[in-house]
Design a protein that fits this description.
Pfam family, one: adh_short_C2
Keywords: Oxidoreductase
CATH architecture: 3-Layer(aba) Sandwich
Shape: globular
Bound molecules: NADPH dihydro-nicotinamide-adenine-dinucleotide phosphate
CATH superfamily: NAD(P)-binding Rossmann-like Domain
Helix content: 40-55%
Family: Belongs to the short-chain dehydrogenases/reductases (SDR) family.
Enzyme class: oxidoreductase
CATH topology: Rossmann fold
Number of helices: 7
Protein name: 3-oxoacyl-ACP reductase family protein
Distance between the termini: 34 Å
Number of strands: 7
């Protein structure tokens, strides 16, 4: 398998795209740690499913808004498994609302998880990643195309991942670490259910007139995590059903 002997940490691995990614990486042979904030039982279920695949697994409570907690999660992963090869920055929160109803407290909360938490996790992980290491961040299709009003704060937080990815690719590349960004389109999860209030409009912007599945995003993460993608860095891969076309 492509990830035999590798250790991955997936932030926000208790549900949705993160859970699918944790399972996919384990299916490729990786041992996997995942963080969660509120969904401890669901995180434990994912851990059980990874162990059933014959891999080692660990769930760590760590609020991505708390940089110290995120750093401790990276350290706990290395303490448990002895190394870290793959960081998947997935934990994120959504926000939809008009500018006039968006408070500065909302700005602080969303940026703390979607931007500061990613920075903290990557900074902590970078010291452990060696040649062949991987940083894969889950951005969003809204960095390419904003489908309607009310997205300013969320788009701000996800567009920041573009610059971070390119800059860190330059910084970590000389050590053999690739840094890439996956931008999902509308994907059926708790955050953006395919039967939710905004679903019809989002679906109509894809070329397939359908939502994506979390497993489809996880497949692209698995590609980027594998040794065969070693010359792919600073890339922005859309898994968006053509949402940006
Ligand atoms: P879900 O809401 O389904 O899952 C979010 C995951 O992130 C959960 O595991 C949750 O854990 C975790 N999480 C949320 N806040 C925190 C926090 N403060 N600290 C630690 N973990 C946290 O979302 P998705 O799976 O849909 O989203 C995953 C990523 O994909 C996000 O970055 C999102 O922005 C992005 N994305 C999603 C799209 C979609 O259409 N679904 C489209 C484009 C991008 P817990 O429940 O334990 O708190």
């Amino acid at each position: 398998m492509t990830l035999d002997g590798k250790v991955a940490l997936v932030t926000g691995g208790s549900r949705g795209i993160g859970a699918a990614t944790a399972l996919r990486l384990a299916g490729e042979g990786a041992d996997v740690a995942l963080t969660y904030h509120s969904s401890g039982e669901k995180a434990a279920e994912i851990v059980d499913r990874i162990k059933a695949l014959g891999r080692r697994a660990l769930a760590i409570e760590a609020d991505s808004a708390d940089a110290d907690a995120v750093t401790r999660a990276v350290d706990a992963t290395v303490a448990e498994f002895g190394r870290l090869d793959i960081l998947v920055n997935n934990a994120g929160v959504g926000f939809v609302g008009p500018l006039e109803a968006t408070g500065i407290d909302d700005v602080d909360r969303v940026l703390a998880v979607n931007v500061r938490g990613v920075f903290a996790a990557t900074k902590a992980a970078a010291g452990h990643l060696g040649d062949g290491g991987r940083v894969i961040t889950i951005g969003s299709c809204v960095a390419e195309r904003v489908p309607g009003p009310g997205m300013a704060l969320y788009a701000l937080s996800k567009t920041a991942m573009v610059g971070l990815t390119k800059a860190l690719a330059r910084e970590l590349g000389p050590r053999g670490v690739t840094v890439n960004l996956v931008q999902p389109g509308p994907t059926d999860t708790d955050m953006n259910p395919a039967d939710g209030p905004y679903a019809a409009d989002q679906r109509s912007l894809t070329v397939f007139d359908r939502y994506g599945e979390a497993a489809e995003v996880a497949d692209t993460v698995a590609y980027l995590a594998a040794p065969g993608s070693g010359y792919v860095t600073a890339a922005i891969l859309s898994v968006d059903g053509g949402h940006a076309a």
